[in-house]
Amino acid sequence: MRFNSLLAATAAVCSAIATPALAHSQWLLPSTTILSGTGNGVTVDAGASTSPFFADHVAMNLDDVKVWEADGTEGKIDNPARGRYRSTFDVMVDKPGTWKIGVEQSSVSGSFMLDGEMWRVGSMRGRPPMGAGLRPGAPGGEAPGGRPGQGGPGGPPPEGGRGRFDPAHVLATPADIPANATDVKLSERISRNFIFVTADAPTMTVFKPVGKGLEMEPITHPGSLVADEEGQFRFLVDGKPAAGVAVTVVPGGKRFREAEEAQELKTGADGVLHVKWPIPGMYWLSAELDDHHPGDPRAAERRMSYTTTLEVVAP
Amino acid sequence: MKSKVLPAVPLLAAGTIASPAGAATVSVTIPRVAVAEYHKPYVAGWLEPADGGAARTVFVWYDIKKGGNEPGTKWLVDLRSWWRKGGRSLRLPADGVSGATRAPGTYQIPLPANLPAGQYVLKVEAARESGGRELVSVPITIPGKGGSSSGKAELGAVTIR
């Protein structure tokens, strides 16, 4: 029994810390990435599942999906809809060049101790923090010395024996952390998930690095990938070539073959990733990098990810 | 003699073409396909310098008349190799290059007279609605050596002389 409860406590902590992206990959699946003329659009499926592009788990939240037109100006999505297993939206690509569509997120999350109890900072798995915010009785609120989580009108009372966290012990942002907090452990997370759609000749404007977090600059343009030619992509961290970045490359359609065909690759010293394509098709590519150079000074570490979907045509 | 040579040279969309003496000519055969729903294929031919460099489109046949929301140009991406090698940066219609789709038969197309001497690969790609897609490559040397190859489904013989 003791072992079991210890295990449960460990599992609770682990699940709070683990990045959900590892278990269920978020993916964007465009109907095509190559268009002739400017009278067309693409329709995009968006979801998260173990195997890329199989809509069998959860739909993606479309609130943060943005469109960058070929010249970098902001575009828009049409017909957004959320289904049970995947969301969907359209983008009319009415100007020539390469467009960028996707999600860019940055957040700081973690935990701290206060009066012997653990608190969390930041939302968990995209859910809005429960009982978050500064309320009377919450730390830093109007009731100095009051025990956090007690007397606060928001949030249910602590439940005994279920994990370490009182659901009321969640703060929205690091700015709310009280001065007498100890063991503050914060990590910054910057994640990107983009697809690229090219009408007529490809352009490079949307790949111009912003110089923050993990980014990708193609050497082989995403609109020019072909199965018998190696794909080359330079990864950058804070605008500089990122060596040793772990990148997973998975072709879609896993159900219709024996092996997963996933490739676990690493960028070279010049930040360049070399990818061979075993088959033509849509590929899910995701790069992860952790370091200790967060942009937010209160965070000790930084977790970065860059995900894209690439269309590789047959020669 | 005259009547034997001239009919073999079709009129391209741009109008008359005169094959200068000595310039190479490619003949392309579009095979007859026995299917209930037949659409004439989109076909493109282009030259790639053997040592790399920009491809040069020699001809592209597509549905030039279809307009509206889904103009004939929409499906040019189905000629996926040609699209990547240069089609996507070609402004259409292109004088002396683009033209209407062709019925099954054999067509003679002159290669550009001003081609720099050297080694090339002539590529011909065909894509058919409700049908397949095929790419045929023929290495050639300008001036001089021609060559021949053949497709299996969407293209017949491709011969340069």
From TrEMBL, chain A:
<protein>
    <submittedName>
        <fullName>DUF4198 domain-containing protein</fullName>
    </submittedName>
</protein>
<feature type="signal peptide">
    <location>
        <begin position="1"/>
        <end position="23"/>
    </location>
</feature>
<dbReference type="InterPro" id="IPR019613">
    <property type="entry name" value="DUF4198"/>
</dbReference>
<feature type="compositionally biased region" description="Gly residues">
    <location>
        <begin position="138"/>
        <end position="153"/>
    </location>
</feature>
<keyword id="KW-0732">Signal</keyword>
<feature type="region of interest" description="Disordered">
    <location>
        <begin position="126"/>
        <end position="168"/>
    </location>
</feature>
<dbReference type="Pfam" id="PF10670">
    <property type="entry name" value="DUF4198"/>
</dbReference>
<feature type="compositionally biased region" description="Low complexity">
    <location>
        <begin position="126"/>
        <end position="137"/>
    </location>
</feature>
From TrEMBL, chain B:
<protein>
    <submittedName>
        <fullName>DUF2271 domain-containing protein</fullName>
    </submittedName>
</protein>
<dbReference type="Pfam" id="PF10029">
    <property type="entry name" value="DUF2271"/>
</dbReference>
<dbReference type="InterPro" id="IPR014469">
    <property type="entry name" value="DUF2271"/>
</dbReference>
<feature type="signal peptide">
    <location>
        <begin position="1"/>
        <end position="23"/>
    </location>
</feature>
<keyword id="KW-0732">Signal</keyword>
